[in-house]
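Minutes, project check-in

Agenda point 3 was the complex the collaborators sent over. CS summarized: three entities, 1153 residues total, and the question is how they sit relative to each other. Sequences were read into the notes so everyone works from the same version.
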Amino acid sequence: MKSVRRSLVFVLILALAFVSTAKADNHQSQSLTIVWAEWDPANYLQELSKDFTAETGIAVDVIQIPWPNFQDKVFTAFVGKSDLYDIVIGDSQWLGRNSQGQNYINLTDWINENIDVDSIYGPAMTAFAEYPKGSGTYWALPAEVDAAGYVYRKDLFEDPNEMTAFQEKYGYALAPPKTYAQLRDIAEFFTRPDKDLYGIATWYSKEYDGITMGFQQVMWSFGGAYGDADTHKVAGHINTEDSVKALEFYTDLLQFSPPDAPNYYWTETLGAYNAGKVAMAMNYFAFFPGVLNPESNEISHDKSGFFIAPAGPKGHYISIGGQGMSISSYSKNKALAKQYMKWFMQKPVQEKWAALGGFTPHKEVLQSDIFKTATPFNEAFAASFPYLRDFWAVPEYAELLEVCQTNWSEAISKIKSAKEALDAIARKHEEIFEDAGYYDE
Amino acid sequence: MLTNHPHQTSRGMSDYQLKMAFIMPTMILLILMNIFPLLWSLYLSFHRYKASMPAAPRFIGVRNYSRLLADPEIWGYFQTTAYFVILAVAAQFFIGFGLALLLNRDFRYKGFVTTLLLLPMMLSPVVVGLFWRFILSSDNAGLLNFFLSPFLNSPIGWTTHPKVAMLAVVIVDTWMWSPFMMLIALAGLSAVPKFLYEAADVDRASAWFKFRWITLPLVSPLLLIALLFRTMDAFKMFDIVYVLTREGGPGTATETVSMNLYKLAFRNYNTGKACAMAYILLIIIVALSNIYVKYLNRVKGEEAQET
Amino acid sequence: MRHRKNFVHYLILALIAVAVLVYITPIYWILATSLKTLSDITTKLPKFVFDISLENYQKLMPSEGVPGVTYLFLGEVVVGLLLFGFFSLFNVRLPRALSLRNLGFIWNSLFILTCLYSFLTLPPLRSRLQTDARFNFLLLIVCTIIAYLLIVPWRKTGGLTSQTAKKQRLTLVLPSVFGTIAICVALANGGSKYFYQLLNSIIIGGGSTILAVGLGTLAAYAFSRFDIAGKDDLLFFILSTRMLPPVVVVIPIYLMYSALGLRDTHFGLILLYTTFNVSFAVWLMKGFIDEIPKEYEDAALVDGYSRFQTFLKVILPQSVTGIAATAVFCLITAWNEFAFALVLTEVGGRAVTAPPSITSATGSTGMDWGKIAAGTFVFLLPVAVFTFLMRSHLLRGVTFGAVKK
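CS then shared the predicted structure for the full assembly.
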C-alpha cells in the first residue's frame, strides 16, 4: 500500500516536471510591445494602436512604467539586453546615451527612405530624433511633443472681488502672469493657509527629473545656463549671479505653496490642483487632461484656464517635454516595429492621434485649427513652442541630472545656500565631463 | 558523535556521505550566488567600467576607492546611515523588549493579539514607505498630524523638513520592525523557567532584582541575536527612503549609503565605482557583525559557566 | 495585596491595548482608505466616517469583468479556512460516513472538479507573457493531488490519534491554499495585471520558502549533529552572506543574470531569494535541532533505522515548530522583497512581483491612494493568514538555540 502511494507521488511529480518543461510557447500571432511612462498619452496610444491591429492583425501592447522609475527600469532592461520591449518611447535626453550605448538602432537611412521628414515639425525632429544635434543622424521619430505650462483657476482669477483687491494691492490687473515677478505676486496674493488655499504648486521633488524640469526654465529665463554646449565648460555658466537669483526665487515660491510642496512631482501638483488647494499649478501639458476630467477634478474641471510659462528678466525659456519613438537593438521584431512607426507617421493617423489627445509632431496637423481647438490647453501649448529648451542630451546626462536633483533639492530645503548648491553642481559636472574625456585635446 | 554500526554502510548512506549531501547544496548555492558575484565586483571595483556602455573595463588601480574615500559627501551618507541605524535599532530594541515584557503573561486572546502586533512586519517595506507618505502628509488627510494637531500650531512637515525627515524614517522603520524584536524577546521570555521566579518570590526578591538577575541574563543572548539581525538590516535599509522621502530627500537629509549606491549603480551606471563603494560598506558591516558575534559568544560562554 | 495585583494586571492589559491600537491604526487606515471613494480620501482632515465603496478593489480586477469561476474559488477558499478553523477549535464528533478523512477527500475532490471545470471553460489568453491559464489549472490539479497524497494518512489507524487528526485537518486547508492560486490564475487570465503579479509573488515567494527551509533544515541538521572542520567559521560565513546589503550583490548578480538570461525569470528570483533566506534558515533551524535530545536518534539507530531514516522519522517530526517559524520568516522576506525585484524584473515582464508595482498606482489625478491601499491589503492577506495559522509555532520556534532549557 505504502509503496503504491510512493510510486504514485513519484509518477505525478515526474508528470509535473514533464508538463512544466514541455509547455510550448505557442503564440504564433505577431505582437509588438511598446514601453512608455505611466500617463494618459500612453492610454491614448493603446487606443490608437487598435486601428493598427485591425489593419494588420499585429497585436500592440503599450506597457506603462511609473515616472519615478521610468528611466531606471528602461535602462536596466537595456543593460540586461532584454528583448521584451520592441519600441521605446523615451525622453529626449536619453538619445545620447542610448545611441552611444548601442541600445537604439540607427534609423537615419530608414527614415530618409520611408518618412517624409519635412512633414514633421522641425524642432521636434531635432529634439527627439537627432543625435549629435545637427548631424542629420536619427535614432527616433518624434511621438509626443510636450512643454511645461500652467493651469489656473479661472473662477478665482475672474472673481470681481479678488480682482479689485489685487488691483489695490499690486497696482495692476489680475490676469495670468506674463513674467515671473507677476507669478510671484499672484502666488502671494492667493496664499491663504487658513482657508487651505495656496498660490502655486510646482515641481520640487527629488525623484527622477522633478525639480530640474521645474527649475531649469526659471534659471534660463533669469539668464543662467547649464554650460557651454561646445566646450562643455560649466563653471561660470551655471553658478552665475543670475542662476543664484533664479534659485533663490524658486526657493522663495515655496512659501506660497502647500506644506508638502518640497515633495511635489507631477502627480502631487495635479492632486493639489484637483483638490482645490492651489490657484495655479505647473505641469507638462500632456498631464492636463486630468484637470478637465470631472471625475478626477470635481471642483474646477470646468473653471480651468491655461497659460504658458512666464518670461524672466533675461529671456523666455520653457522646459521641453515629450518623447521620441525608438527601436530597441535587442528587439526581435524590428521589421514590425518599423512597420508600426511608418503607420504612425501617416497624416490620418496623426490626426486621430491629435484628436485622442496626443501631442502630434506632424507639422500640418499641429498648426491646424482642429488641433488648436481640440482641447482648452492646446492653444497655450502651441504658443510655447518657440521657447522650448532641453537639458544636456550627452550620454552622461543621467549623472548630470542626478547631481542637479540632489543639489537643488538641498538648496530648496536650505541644507545648502543657492550659491553653494550651484558651485557644487559646477564642480561635479566638470568632474563628470572630465572623466568622460570631453576636455581631452 | 554516534558510534558507527558495522553494517551501516550497507543500509543507505554513510555518515560522511550524508553530511556532504546535506551541507553541499547550501554551500554551493551560497558560493555561486555570493562568493562568485563578490569576486566579480571586487575585480570591477578596480576598473573604470560602465555597464551601460559597450567599452570594456579599464584597469585604474585604487582610484575608485581613493576618490570615494576623499569625497566628503560619501562620508555624509555614511553619517546619515549610522545616525539612522543607531536611532532605529535603539528604538526598536526598547519598544520591542518593552512590548514583550508586557505580553509575557497569560491572558485571553494572547495568540490573536500577538499576531495583530506582528502585522506591520508582514507588509512590504516599500508599500509601508509609500503608504506612510499618506499618513505623514501635511496636505491631505495626514493621520499623524491630525492626532498631533491638539498639541501643535501648524502641521509638521514630516517628509519635507530636513531636520524631521530622518525622525519620520525612524518612526516608520520602528513601527515596522519593533514587532520582530518583540517576537524574539517574547520567545526568550517564555522559555525562562517559572521555578526560578517562584524561588525568588520565596526569597521576597524585588521585581527589579528578578528582572536584573533572572530575566535579563537568560534572554540576553537571544536579544543580541535579534539586535544583530536588525542592525544588519538597518544598514541595508533602502526601500523606505526610496519611496517615503523620495530617494533620500529632502535634499540629502535621509540619503543613506544604500540609497546613494543604488543611484550610483543603476542610474549613473558607474559600475566600477559602485562596486568599490559596495566593498567599503561591506567591510564596515562585516567588521561590526564580527564584534557582535564575538560579544555574543562571550555572553553565551559566561552563561554556560554560570549554569 | 490581591487588589494591587489585580490593578497591575489591568494596567498591563490596558497598556497592551494601547500598543495594539498604535500598531494597528496604520493598518486599519490602509483598510479604511481602500474602502473609500476618491473624494473621501483627499479631504483636508482625515475622514473616519465614510460610505463604503468597493471601487478601489474593482480597479485591481480585470477591466473586462471578473470570470465567474473566481467566485467559486473564493467560496472554496473561505469555506476551507472556516472548516479548518472550526475543526481545530472544537472537538466535534462526526458520523462515521462523514469522518474528517472522508470530508477532506470530498472537499479536495470538489476543488479538483472546480479546477477541471475552469480548465474546460476558460478562454485562452492571447498574451505573449502569460502561459495558458488552462495549463496552469492542470498544474494546480496535479499539485493538489500530490500534496493530498503526501499529507493524508494512508493506512486506517484504529483510534484517532492527535497526529492523524491534525493531518486530516490539514487536508481541509489544501483547497484554500491552491484556491488562492486558482483565483490569481483566473483573474490574471481575465487580464488583471495586479493578479498576475500576485501570482508571481506566490510562485516565487512559495518556491523560495520551500527551498530555503528545505536546504536550511538539511544543513542545520548536519551542522548540529556532525563534526565539521571549521564549523564555526562556516557558520559565520553563512551568516555573513546575510550581511551583504542587497545593493552590494545586486550589481554583479544583475550582470551575471543578464549574461545567463536569468533576469525576469521565476527561476532566477526563486534562486536569489533562497540564497537570501537560507542563512537565516540554517541559523534558526540549527538552534532548534540542537535542542532535540540526541537520545531519540540513538534509540532509532539501535532499532535499525539508517541515519537518513532517523532524520526523516525522528528529527523532522520533532522540528515541525522550528520549520513553521522559519517558513514564516522566509516567506515574509521573499514576499516583500523590493530592491532585487526592482532591478531584476521588467515592468510588464514575465516574473515581476507585486511590491515594485503596487507603488505604481499613479493615475492622472494625483496619487491613487485608494488603489494603493486596496493592492496592499490584498497583498497582506495571504501572509497574515499564514502567520496566523502558524502563530503557536512562532514563539517556540525562534529560539536560535540561545535559550538554555
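Noted in discussion: Chain B touches chain C through 106 residues (CB under 8 Å).
Follow-up: revisit at the next meeting once the mutant set is ready.
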